[in-house]
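Q: My labmate handed me this sequence with no annotations at all. I'd like to see what the chain might look like in three dimensions before we decide whether it's worth expressing. Could you predict it?
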Amino acid sequence: MSSIGLVGGTFDFFHVGHQKLISSCLSNCDLLEIWVLSDKIALQKDPRISSWFDRCNLIRDSLSSKENSRVTFHELLDEFGVATSHPSAKMIFCTDDTLSTCKKINSMREEEGLYPLSIISVPHELSENGEIISSSRIREGEIDRDGKSWFNYQIIESDLYLTKEVESMLKDPFGKLFEGPEEDHSVAIKSALNSLEEYNLPVIGVGDVTVRALQNFGSGATIAIIDEKTKRVKWEGFKEINQSLFDNVLKCKNPPGLLTKSLFDTCKKAVSNWMEKDQSTLIIVDGEGDLAPIFLHIIAPIKSTIIYGQPNKGVVVRITGLDSKRRCRNILSLCENKNN
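A: Here is what I predict for the chain of 340 residues:
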């Protein structure tokens, strides 16, 4: 008779810790029932969590065809699921943080006259900085699905020069273009904001024209980056940006063609202000601020919105995700260190 094992979880951003857990499950039982938390409950935890089907598919994609033949997927509708009454299961798998739930499940089974399940606790996988890999850390933008930091902070101990390869990569718009007339930026801004979900926060506006347009539309940026220019020419319209609308005003230097430590540190502080204090920040750049999204995609949490202007066309919106973080990490790796 085949042994049946149970494992449950949210399994968002299926990562190497999840992979280790599933591999351990399959090494200890013949058939594995994977109970994936329902969308209704998952979205109450965090509206950025992927759909039930997407989460299941990521698990399937990580398994071989032989492993998939030993696995079934089920919707977990509450804390315990069927584990308290499953008539055929022999074991249940967990990590340290869900061990107490498994023990409670066995107590409930014994109260109903059922045999307890064998509990197999699988150690957490650790990221490169020694902390537990978790979906929440991935959503907050700290690490990728392999537990690696998105950015080597030693790189930015000095300023970075853009190489020709990087300049070529930056020529094309990085996101979705929302068109609108040059003389009325509210048209493009309105379309862009209407495309967003409630959880696409923070909203990061890059460029004086974009920041002013967001302000005039009544949806000011959570984080705003301005350099008192448009199309790299001094622009008097920046004076209409109301600095008092922001909880914090920070200044930094970033000469043309560079990505400076000053810009990085200031962007990092602005993201921290929002994540830790729920505060808005205006960054005033002495130089050029249009390269700030390279740092911001690296630093910002998943589902953040970055909006910047596309001259004579409208505005571009890019939602921060694993793909944008990978792209910006690659760009930074291709830059030249100023000290070299």
